[in-house]
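[audit] Reproducing an earlier prediction to check determinism. Same input, same settings, fresh worker. If the tokens differ from the archived copy the diff job will pick it up downstream; this log only records the rerun itself.
[audit] input (329 residues):
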Amino acid sequence: MSTNFENDVYEWGRRLIEKVGYKANKDSFVTLANVFTLSRMFISTIPRRVHVSESFMTPQKYDKAIKQIIHDLNVGHNVNARLSRRIKDKKVYTDRMLADWGIHHLHLGEEVISKGKNEGLIEGNKEILFVWVTNNDAYLIGIFDHDSWTKTQVLEIVHDNWYHLLKPFELPRDVRSTIDITDLDRLELRNACVNTAVLVRGCSYMGLGGGLTCGNIGGNDVHKANTILRASDDLAEWVKNNYSILESYMSGAGIDFASETLEFDVSKFVISAMYTIKCKPSNYRIHIQSQHEPYTLVPHGFEAVIEPCAEKREIQDHRAIKGLLIECG
């Protein structure tokens, strides 16, 4: 029997990155983390309730674009052609505003670029739309210029309209920065991958989007990559501790377990946080009992990118399994 569950994880990341058209990073861990960068960056095509801030002002020249965006978000049409031009880069890039504050920006043009490196994207303008996106809702904050990435005003609007979005990231009252950080300071620090708290209406917030690591990767993306790697270690330990049980069962089915190659079903873990091992060449699958309810590591809708087969990407619950379940196919 042979296993290399950690390698399974890294190979899964590389295949997925290349599948969606990007070049894998030479660093396997960065490639793995980039899967979650993409899951956060691309807005999945699912219907969302759309909320507009009370202070929202739409210049007449953007009226048609804003109405189109609201409609598309509402019915679940694709709005990703309005994202940063850098989604066309060969390698995955980190949107620092999204990583720091959890806020997307959308371009407000009406025409599709027909040629050049940005072919297929929507034309841009001097201003952009800032929007906070969750699985079920989209919050239109306002229209800003391209120098507004770190303006406290952006979060003031969120605070005034949808305080519940910020509340989970509020720091204790006795935790305050000892220096005043200006919008320009914050921009320079963010560009250097330094995370800062932001004072809004007397409340301090930090880590709204998970923050940035010193390697210019989203902190949440790194955390999720590490979650899978820890899972691969736990799975290897489980196989080691249950080897005799597995060998006995497979022998009863006429299979030489010692000649099998075991592979971690990474997609299933990412979608459901459940452990399944694929056995080759026998084509058996080993499902392991779980002590916790299912959860997913990606935003709703991105599971379709991870697993094209609708049946295989359904959320699964292993809590009812007694020990383990082995099935063929």
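[audit] rerun output stored. Observation attached for the diff report: The longest helix spans residues 219-241.
[audit] end
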